[in-house]
Amino acid sequence: MTIVLQSSNFLNSSTSCRRGFIRANINTPNNQTFKISLPRLQKRARLAQEQELISVFSTSGSPIEKQISPSRRSDPLVIEKLYAIKEAIADRVEMHRNIGEQRSQWSSMLLTSINGITLAAATMVGIAASSSGDSVLGLKMSSTLMYLAATGMLVAMNQIQPSQLAEEQRNAARLFQALYNQIETTLSIGHPLSIDVKEAMDRVLALDKAYPLPLLGLMIEKFPSSVEPAVWWPQQRRRQPKRVNDNWNGWNGKLEEEMKEIMGVLGRKDQEEYIRLGEKALKFNKFLAMSGPLLTGLAAVGSAFADHSPHGSWAAMLGIVGGALASVVNTVEHGGQVGMVFEMYRSNAGFFQYMQESIESNLTETEMERRENGEVFELKLALKLGRSLSDLRNLAAASLSKGEEIDEFGSKLF
After folding, report:
1. pLDDT, tens only, 126-150
2. Which partner from 133, 191, 349, 403 sits 20 to 30 angstroms from 322, CA to CA?
3. How many domains are there within the chain?
4. Domain carrying residue 112
């Protein structure tokens, strides 16, 4: 009995803890048990420590950040400049999309109008050749004027190539959107530097030069003497050195050899193929651009001399057949958007040249920390060519074994 009373007095006494100052009273008569929850206190302590760490890392001058990379701290002015460039790029994307839609509508409306005028003039010539009276002169004059108007409109339309202009604006909108996404990624995952601002500005200006908005003075030549790949990127410059986890920055001898082989395939197969197709499209477009105005001009002459005489019947036939053929030629050229096809080939050839220059700029850089990470670069290249990593390596192996006799193209996307 004495032992029970002593234990009861001991349990009813207050116990103190230096760290938590925990007090617990146990009343044995009520037959209730109270458990002391120490994990709660440990959880609160962990939360307090985490808040202290967050407050330390949120400061701009944290000692850990200084020890890791003093030059990679975020500069508010650099971030503000990148956001300003982002806003300008977003505006350019909208402008190129709107103007591209407008010029695509030009192509369809001008084609419909010119074909309507041409066919109406041919109908008038036929009526004038089969009728007599005072109305014949009016029909002949009207058809001649309509043919001349169609000739002038065709010359202007063939010179500016609205379908090619629309394709240029679509390419510009896509490339500006890609640059916008790249700047967003830079702001999200890393500490941007002033060199990032410089590169973004250079790329914006290069795109403005490659795909101008005005028609007069700055318009890309639609019938060049030779086909050159489209160039929308600035000159490749040395990258800023960065902290890497290993000495090789994801590169090794095997990867470098694979990149050399892939660069050779892109140059020998893909780029040459699109330049060859671009030359064919350019020649065909030149032929159609000269044939249309020539046919409407001959039809205008024929309609002016159409009458019941033997020579007049031949002139009427020239006016009718010339107008019909001109409508066919215009439909093939602008309805088939031959100028757009040529621009697509030129742009694709430029894409493969850009990929080759990107590979070469990494391979020629002797300082590994200045290169883009090899594993990331290989992944990006595979995605842009529509291949898996294993498929890309198989292509490099096939090129290494067969050399220039390889039949496979580098890209599977286009």
Report:
1. 888 877 766 788 888 999 999 999 9
2. 133
3. 1
4. 76-228+249-402
